[in-house]
From TrEMBL:
A Pfam family hit: DUF434
Annotated DUF434 domain residues: 25-80
InterPro entries with a match to the protein in the record: DUF434, DUF5616
DUF5616 domain segment(s): 85-222
Organism, scientific name: Niastella soli
Protein's UniProt name: DUF434 domain-containing protein
PANTHER family: DUF434 DOMAIN-CONTAINING PROTEIN, DUF5616 DOMAIN-CONTAINING PROTEIN
Length: 342
């Protein structure tokens, strides 16, 4: 029976993912994957094509697959993602091994890979057997304290019952929960992915199938790992966003900041200025309220902002609601949040 791959930071992975030349090949391969998958090419065939073109070995292809998705999958997942501010008082279900192992990997100094959907994944795996590592208890405590700070009412861990040592891990989780007063329930399920989807509740997972089929989800892995020091994160998202969104870096960074803080479902790109690299349009999730943001002819610290309300008549799609020139990011964020009713 296969066992979980080691989390040790070895020289091979440093060469496969740490060298600039290897990273460049992975970056180009990811761009090809996004192109192919967005045009409905099968995943396996796309991975083979990109892997062969850029001479990627198996572990690099595993990382590439975890980072990849189509434009439709990206939109579907982002539209169901819940922001941290919406978690208070809720019950959340954790895809147990999925959530735990990615944090173990990050704490152990292994590489983690940011997918186009914003989820962090690794290339460790569980095939019928699991064993704890030196960072397991630390990872469980970090998860527990983070969810406690987010004021979740209840946390339900769902582990794979057929995986060996899952029963022992269940006991460890209950011991930690009792010691730290975490509101945890631990379940062992024969088909945890199916259980998470059919439950129709708020879930945490980076499993692609679960994300596509679930009702709502919270990106716990990214929330946790972004706060860790000296983590080996490999991400090519900003370059790809710049190419697909066709905006300058300031606009892309601003949109990413707003969507990360308020949720992609509440900050929706509705761009009527596609040819303008220094401007973008955003709406609330209903599409009724719009903000136009520009950096044209302004220094790095200031923006122009124009607000539009729903139309007062049938002659125009929006009605003016005020303009703000030479405002700071903090001022912009406050006005946008108020106008889009966030």
């Amino acid at each position: 029976m296969a066992t979980r791959s080691t989390l040790e930071n070895n020289q091979a992975d440093n060469l496969l993912f740490g060298e600039p030349e290897a990273q460049e090949r992975l970056q180009y391969a990811l761009e090809d994957m996004y192109y192919l998958l967005s045009r409905d090419y099968p995943l396996k065939a796309s991975l083979t094509l990109a892997g062969n073109r850029y001479q990627l070995v198996k572990r690099q292809q595993q990382a590439l697959q975890g980072m990849s998705c189509s434009a439709n999958e990206l939109s579907l997942r982002k539209n169901k993602e819940v922001s941290p501010t919406k978690l208070k008082g809720q019950t959340i279900l954790l895809d147990g091994f999925n959530v735990l192992i990615i944090l173990e990997t990050a704490l152990s100094g292994g590489f983690v890979f940011e997918g186009l959907d914003g989820c962090y994944r690794d290339i460790s795996s569980v095939h019928g057997s699991y064993r704890t590592v030196q960072t397991t208890e630390d990872a469980l405590i970090i998860i527990g304290k983070t969810l406690q700070q987010l004021q979740l009412q209840k946390v339900i861990w769902v582990f794979d019952a057929p995986v060996s040592n899952s029963g022992k891990l269940k006991g460890t989780c209950y011991e930690i929960a009792e010691k730290h007063h975490f509101p945890w329930e631990i379940l062992l399920e024969n088909a945890p992915d199916k259980y998470l989807i059919e439950n129709s509740g708020l879930i945490c997972s980076s499993d692609a199938w679960v994300l596509d089929e679930c009702k709502t989800w919270f990106n716990l892995g990214a929330y946790l790992i972004k706060g860790l020091p000296e983590t080996k994160i490999l991400s090519f998202n900003k370059r790809l966003k710049q190419e697909t969104l066709n905006k300058n870096k300031r606009i892309i960074d601003l949109v990413e900041h707003l969507q990360n803080k308020y949720g992609a479902t509440n900050i929706v790109i509705n761009d009527h200025w596609e040819g303008d690299l220094e401007a973008i349009g955003l709406t609330d999730k209903t599409g009724k309220y719009l903000v136009y943001i520009s950096t044209f002819n302004l220094d790095y610290y200031h923006y122009f902002l124009s607000l539009e309300n729903p139309p007062a008549d049938n002659e125009s799609p929006y009605s003016p609601a005020g303009d703000y020139d030479y405002i700071t990011l903090e001022e912009l964020e406050s006005i946008v949040a108020r106008h889009l009713k966030l």
